[in-house]
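Changelog note: in this version the structure field was regenerated for every chain. One regenerated record is shown below for reference.
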Amino acid sequence: MMFVAQAAEYHVNWVMNMHGWGNGRSFAAGDVLVFDYAVGAHNVVEVDQTGYNTCTPSAGAPTYTSGHDRITLHRGTNLFICSFPGHCNGGMKIAVKAH
């Protein structure tokens, strides 16, 4: 008999001041984050550590704009910001570690 692990799905209400989002949760590679926000008001950009620290995405960074973005986590640290002016600096960023 073969068992298949089911990936978990987590909804992220993508707003300012995201500090602490994910605290107390355990994430695994393959889990899906669903970022919910008003189209045109925000975006979601996958960044590296420098981009996360400086709130500046690198050229060609994956950018999502649907307002209901589904992003599959990879093993390790997954970093996301909103690149709209002032949003990341206002706390619109999260770091998610997946095992």
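Spot check on this record: The first helix runs from residue 49 to 54. The longest strand covers residues 76-81.
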